[in-house]
Amino acid sequence: MSTTVTGVGTLTVRPLDPLKDAELLHGWVTHPKAAFWMMQDARLEDVERAYMEIAADEHHHACLGLWDGVPAFLMEKYDPAHRELVGLYEPEPGDVGMHFLVAPADTPVHGFTRAVITAVMAHLFEDPATARVVVEPDVRNKAVHALNEAVGFVPAREIRKPEKTALLSFCTREQFVAATGVGA
């Protein structure tokens, strides 16, 4: 995936290397800005282990996002019929779960996080098998709810996960195109 966003730059993704990228990710997931990632107290070894488990999982994948070639965000996709949401909703064929995290920045770029989620969604919908993207952010994470809405997500209901109360939301390919114009 490669997306060029006017005023932001080029966003690309590559597979995450759990060992080579762990130190970088450790700084991101333990940063106060990443409180909803729930890894604030993680040690480097914890991050390595978590992403080694994802790398070995056929139903969960992680990618490192690059901004003009520099690591800037994390993207995870998962099969909600097998991970994260098992037993919490009735998955449909073509459902893909998604998480994303933007790296902390000393100098924030206006519109960057929205550009990232738009690029992540475009990447997921590049796969013709993806019919709908499913997310389950913490109900308290108002900033991500606004971003999700901006790219076409529609909240369905609150669900109780072991680690949080989440807002289950869905976005079809058609809703994404209508909200963003991407892929039209």
Task: Give a structural overview.
This protein starts with a strand and ends with a helix. It contains five helices and eight strands, in the order E-E-H-H-E-E-E-H-E-H-E-E-H. The longest helix is centred in the middle third of the chain and has 14 residues, at 112-125. It has an eight-stranded mixed beta sheet, sandwiched between helices. The chain is of the alpha+beta class. The relative contact order is 0.15.
Structural shape: globular
- Helix count from the secondary structure assignment: 5
Widest sheet: strand order? 1-2-3-4-5-6-8-7
Percentage of residues assigned to helices: 25-40%
- Structural class of the secondary elements? alpha+beta
Protein topology:
Elements: E1 2-5, E2 9-15, H1 22-29, H2 44-55, E3 60-67, E4 70-78, E5 95-102, H3 112-125, E6 132-135, H4 142-150, E7 154-161, E8 164-172, H5 173-180
Parallel strand pairs: 5-6
Antiparallel strand pairs: 1-2, 2-3, 3-4, 4-5, 6-8, 7-8
Helix pairs in contact: 1-2
